[in-house]
């Protein structure tokens, strides 16, 4: 069956209910949990459409695996203290790839907070001791967060989303997560949830930064670059008037992630509604997009050398 290229793809989301809250997977190529558009799984579209979907350089780099994974997270209780390996460490540990990600905070509870990074130098030996005596949180940088805050979480950075946070997450297509500490929680069978102390120790970046938050000056009706890394580039838009975006020179797919509001998207002349809580995949063949309405959204794509 020949699959014809569409000008945009909306996928049926997958809602995952977890011990701490929910994840809404809006674009996923994770094996066994692929999102579908018009009944077709994301990776099926990729295998058929190849570089026309993701771009020539990206198809050469990633082949038939879609490189990004987009989800909305609603944390009703604290997530575990965790870390993800980088690609090199993941392969050494028998995994296909690591995980670098970013968070954009949406409308959250007034007391919402996150952990991101180590706030003071600790050694690998101290790390193991702090895990053993349940004091690892004392070594982490804690941030009170509000709508519009942004955090880049490269592989190796210890982190945790805490109760009351609602956010959009962009990440490499990988489900590799190493739990360091989980507040002695039990699973549905009453057993302690598995920790990954050794694997995490091999993955942690013990460098300390003065600040782990991505700072930017909020502006309306223009693109503001938030993150630029080998795995994705992400910008935020806050529109109150129509905008035309030219993608003719971009060799990549584009994902638009709705944060708030509602608008009308015209993709090479074909119109579709676009709201907060949705994501739209635009193939690499798209030349131009016009957006109108009152809408806040993220734009992300992958630039491969």
Largest sheet entry: 8 strands, antiparallel
CATH architecture of the largest domain: Sandwich
Count all strands and give the number.
22
Overall geometric form: globular
Helix content: 10-25%
| Average pLDDT number | 95
Structural category? mainly beta
CATH overall fold name of the largest domain: Jelly Rolls
> Are there runs of 5+ residues with pLDDT below 50, and where?
none
Distance between the termini: 32 Å
Order of helices and strands: EEEEEHHHEEHEEHEEEEEHEEEEEEEE
Number of helices: 6
Strand content: 35-45%
CATH class of the largest domain: Mainly Beta
**Rg measurement, Å:** 20 Å
CATH superfamily of the largest domain: Jelly Rolls
Overall structural domain count: 2
Give the gist of this structure.
This protein has 305 residues and is mostly beta strands. It is built from six helices and 22 strands.
Descriptors:
305 residues; mainly beta; Jelly Rolls; 2 domains; 8-stranded antiparallel β-sheet; 7-stranded antiparallel β-sheet; 22 strands; 39% strand
Care to describe what's here?
The protein has 305 residues and is mostly beta strands. The protein has two domains: 9-214, Sandwich (Jelly Rolls); 224-301, Sandwich (Jelly Rolls), CATH 2.60.120. Helix content is 13%, strand content 39%. A hairpin with a 2-residue loop joins strand 19 and strand 20 (270-275). The longest helix has 9 residues, at 124-132. It starts with 8 loop residues before the first strand and ends with a strand. The mean pLDDT is 95.
